[in-house]
């Protein structure tokens, strides 16, 4: 694994028990669409507030490799140059202190780095391993946040770790164990930065990741999330830093993987791993479901028993409803080191109805996770109403230049006195 410390190039229903969000930031009056030309940017978050945004930009290379899924989009909505201009305008308007971006190609990073750099943002990029053209990027406001350390996480190296802490050690079929181990060799990555907030004196760890999409690989997805938590916890402990982890985690609310993300243990049969991300329980549009490619574009599922066998570029696997056996045992994983202290920024008001919509699928897979001992979310980006999403027919569009929508919140950094109460 990359060595630690190395530099890396519908609005949710209101909770009646909760006080109204502050209106001064304007964040909760903005729906994350491309602002009109000449519109003023949102007012900056005022210390001890910190504005954090996570956004999957939709890599142009992946869009072009899956043209059929964007057949309902206007030509201008899928044009590379037009999309990048709109993305830059949207990100500038948000006026965030931390931007965590996924599916960022090198050219996109360089153009955003030039634009956002002129606005006081410092960018760090990590490309996916292998032949993939995209990666993740973090931008931080350099006038406030001073970079102390950076760490890259390459999940493909999980394949080299002994059993990598997730494959059940009591699998009797050695060949199956070896095959599961090799399946961990995926090109997904994460990026972790430790920064010091010069206005409050706090150290903060901010992270960005894009977890494997393939729903049939629940075990590998679990391993990637577990590794992210392990590495982030170690780095945050070393620097006495509060933690904020952002990204496309490719799991839906209330799924097994989402529960693990929020600090629950896992005790589940390996037979059911294609159900762990919750995607098969999400309503499907136009009769389409998920397919089997690394990007996560929708494909029509086979109509086999239980609709469990889904074929795609990865070939066919056993159905999730196969009979249990000693060679497909239970997976038992303790909670990750943050435990229930790690929470979703939208969890207390309800996760967004939709953060991604493409190829006939809509659902929520993007999250901002935070250390609830060190931070408290105070204002949230207003998520698009379901009627607005339906009216779009498909994303991207002229108003929303990706097949995801941004999520953002203003985090209050709790004082040291409060964290000890």
Features:
421 residues; alpha+beta
Count of helices?
8
How far the N terminus sits from the C terminus, by CA atoms, comes to 38 Å
Mean pLDDT figure: 82
Q: Which structural class best describes the helix and strand composition?
A: alpha+beta
The order of strands across the largest sheet is: 3-4-2-1-18-17
H/E element sequence: EHHEHEEEHEEHEHEEEEEEEEEHEH
Strand count, sense and closure of the main sheet?
Answer: 6 strands, mixed
Oligomer: single chain
What would the principal axes of the Cα set say about the shape? globular
Strand fraction = 25-35%
Counting DSSP E segments of at least 2 residues, the number of strands comes to: 18
Tell me roughly what share of residues is in helical segments.
Answer: 10-25%
Rg estimate, integer Å: 21 Å
Give the low-pLDDT segments. Answer: 1-7, 9-24, 285-326, 417-421
Outline of the structure:
The chain has 421 residues and is α+β, with helices and mostly antiparallel strands.
């Amino acid at each position: 694994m990359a060595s630690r410390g190395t530099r890396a190039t519908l609005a949710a229903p209101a909770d009646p028990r909760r006080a109204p969000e502050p209106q001064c930031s304007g964040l909760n009056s903005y729906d994350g669409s491309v602002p009109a030309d000449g519109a003023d940017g949102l007012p900056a978050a005022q210390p001890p507030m910190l504005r954090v945004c996570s956004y999957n930009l939709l890599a142009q290379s992946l869009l072009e490799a899956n043209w059929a899924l964007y057949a309902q989009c206007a030509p201008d909505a899928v044009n590379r140059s037009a999309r990048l201009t709109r993305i830059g305008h949207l990100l500038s308007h948000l006026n965030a202190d931390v931007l965590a971006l996924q599916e960022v190609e090198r050219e996109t990073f360089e153009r955003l780095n030039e634009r956002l750099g002129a606005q006081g943002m410092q960018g760090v990029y990590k490309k996916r391993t292998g032949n993939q053209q995209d990666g993740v990027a973090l931008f931080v406001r350099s006038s406030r946040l001073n970079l102390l350390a950076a760490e890259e996480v390459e999940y493909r190296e999980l394949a080299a770790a002994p059993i990598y802490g997730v494959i059940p050690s009591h699998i009797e079929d050695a060949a199956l164990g070896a095959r599961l181990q090799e399946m961990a060799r995926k090109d997904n990555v994460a990026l972790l930065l430790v920064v010091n907030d010069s206005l409050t004196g706090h150290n903060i760890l901010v992270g960005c990741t894009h977890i494997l999409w393939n729903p049939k690989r629940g075990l590998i997805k679990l391993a990637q999330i577990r590794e992210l938590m392990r590495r982030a916890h170690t780095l945050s402990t070393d620097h006495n830093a509060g933690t904020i982890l952002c990204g496309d985690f490719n799991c839906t609310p209330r799924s097994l993987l989402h529960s693990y993300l929020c600090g629950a243990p896992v005790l589940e049969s390996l037979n059911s791993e294609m159900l762990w991300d919750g995607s098969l329980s999400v309503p499907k549009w136009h009769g389409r479901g998920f397919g089997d490619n690394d990007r996560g574009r929708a494909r029509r599922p086979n109509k086999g028993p239980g609709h469990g066998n889904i074929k795609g570029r990865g070939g066919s696997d056993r159905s999730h409803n196969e009979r249990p056996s000693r060679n497909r045992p239970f997976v038992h994983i303790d909670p990750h080191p943050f435990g229930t202290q790690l929470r979703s920024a939208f969890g207390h008001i309800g996760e967004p109805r939709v953060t991604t919509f493409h190829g006939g699928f809509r659902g929520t897979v993007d999250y901002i996770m935070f250390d609830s001992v060190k931070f408290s979310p105070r204002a949230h980006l207003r998520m698009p109403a379901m009627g607005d999403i339906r009216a779009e027919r498909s994303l991207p569009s002229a108003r929303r230049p990706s097949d995801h929508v941004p999520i953002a919140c203003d985090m209050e950094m709790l004082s040291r006195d409060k964290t000890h109460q």
